[in-house]
Design goal:
The protein is mostly helical. The protein is about 45% helix and about 10% strand.
Length: about 200
């Protein structure tokens, strides 16, 4: 029995050192060398100042910026979750309806033809994590009318920025194209800074 206990304790120590220390350090080192940006959190900087991560959505206020999807966690990566309400939930319907009213109140003055039926689902619903950094192209193109008017830019110029900051499908066939809101707002500020 003593031999079994010693062998077990030795196995625990060896596996802990190997799987808990050596392996994670080796993988982290390889990632830092092979993919330094991604291993470091895909941080985006302006003039040497970190403004966010391309992997985590954030809130943008004011009419001069593109807005992200709604988030129950206020875009906190520490507490990501999805408001798990089903399509028959009164609470879920009320939340979507409130988000729809707010979206139309913000966007309709800049696009008078905008109707409830044209609002994309990502404009009024949360993502699964609550911190998705992407919006749909349709959502971005609706917001483009507001951005163009507020910043005094031609709509075509704003739409070109949207096209330049749209990510394609993963592996060319998975998911839908999406627009990274942080990257788009950074490009927008470079093109036409807020006055």
């Amino acid at each position: 029995m003593k031999k079994d206990v010693v062998t077990s304790l030795l196995a625990i120590v060896v596996l802990t050192v190997f799987l808990g220390v050596a392996y994670p350090l080796a993988i982290t080192g390889i990632a830092q060398v092979a993919f330094p940006g991604k291993a470091g959190g895909s941080k985006l900087s302006i003039d040497g100042r970190v403004v966010g991560s391309s992997l985590i959505g954030q809130e943008f206020k004011g009419n001069a910026y593109f807005h992200s999807r709604p988030s129950a966690t206020e875009y906190s990566a520490d507490v990501t979750y999805f408001g798990n309400v089903g399509p028959n939930s009164v609470e879920g319907r009320e939340e979507v309806e409130a988000n729809l009213r707010a979206y139309l109140r913000l966007e309709k003055p800049f696009d008078h033809s905008l109707s409830r039926d044209q609002v994309p689902v990502d404009a009024v619903t949360q993502s699964a994590s609550g911190v998705d950094p992407h919006i749909s192209e349709a959502n971005a193109r609706i917001q483009a009318h507001r951005i163009a008017a507020v910043r005094g830019l031609p709509l075509a110029q704003v739409e070109d920025l949207i096209s330049a900051n749209t990510d394609g499908r993963s592996l060319g066939l998975l998911g839908e194209p999406g627009v990274n809101v942080l990257e788009l707002n950074i490009a927008l500020d470079k093109e036409a800074p807020v006055k």
